[in-house]
Write a structure and sequence with these properties.
Elements: H1 2-6, H2 12-26, E1 42-43, E2 46-47, H3 55-65, H4 70-85, H5 96-104, H6 111-120, H7 133-138, H8 149-156, H9 163-175
Antiparallel strand pairs: 1-2
Amino acid sequence: IIRTMLGQQVSLAAARNQVNRLVEALGEPVGDAFATPSETATTVDGPASKSFPTPGVIAARGHEVLRGPRRRIDAVIGVAAALAEGRVEPHVGVDASDLRAQLLELPGIGPWTAEYIALRAMGEADAFPAADVALLKAAADAAGARPTPTQLLARAEAWRPWRAYAVLHLWRASTETPA
């Protein structure tokens, strides 16, 4: 959830920078805890040296590390506190609709974020972040006119209860160049 929030409305590079700053400043050393005897723990950027900080640590010390608009930082800290206190529980035993409701009660979490988390973290087969820019791009008509989120949501009703699968296809289509 924290990584999702850090990636909202910023470039991929800016999101990665925020995550790296958070891990470097607040993460715990991992050593070789995640490696088998024949390999070294690695990440996309190379050897893993620290874990992602716990929600409690982010809630207590995130203000020291996070950069950007105050409101956004406060939202991340608030969500971290809610996770640490158990007011939000993203795990397989929680119904995705209950998680959405928990998330939407928190400042800084809107429908896109709640749907994205339901899709990515919970594996919710019907999650559909209708305001996602890449989805709107991929759903454009032959003339390039993009639907509104409301129009896309209405179109997606026909795809229930498997809208998340459509999301994955539309995301892929949004990155492909037509032949």
